[in-house]
């Protein structure tokens, strides 16, 4: 049952390590959006697709302005 929290902690640890070393991604900071899927694969997929679609829409809107 604790598998999800362990994966989240590993992700947060990794991102913190990457962000603290300016040689890895100079000028770039990574972030996380963690969604609780309530242990439902279908819900997790739906949330992931909503996130990706929103990202694509914002990216397209940004590119249209430039």
UniProtKB/TrEMBL annotation:
Keywords: Glycoprotein, Membrane, Receptor, Transmembrane, Transmembrane helix. Its main location: membrane. It is found in: Membrane. It is a multi-pass membrane protein. Gene3D superfamilies: 3.40.50.2300. The keyword Glycoprotein applies. Pfam families: ANF_receptor. It comes from the Eukaryota. It comes from Parasteatoda tepidariorum (Common house spider). PANTHER family: METABOTROPIC GLUTAMATE RECEPTOR. This is Glutamate-gated metabotropic ion channel receptor, putative. The keyword Transmembrane helix applies. Transmembrane segments: none annotated. One of its GO terms (molecular function) is G protein-coupled receptor activity. Residues 7-54 form the Receptor ligand binding region domain. GO terms for cellular component: membrane.
């Amino acid at each position: 049952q604790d598998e999800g929290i362990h994966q989240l902690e590993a992700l947060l640890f990794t991102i913190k390590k990457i962000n603290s070393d300016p040689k890895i991604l100079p000028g770039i900071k990574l972030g996380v959006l963690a969604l609780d899927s309530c242990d439902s694969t279908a819900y997790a997929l739906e949330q992931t697709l909503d996130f990706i679609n929103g990202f694509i829409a914002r990216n397209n809107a940004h590119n249209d302005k430039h």
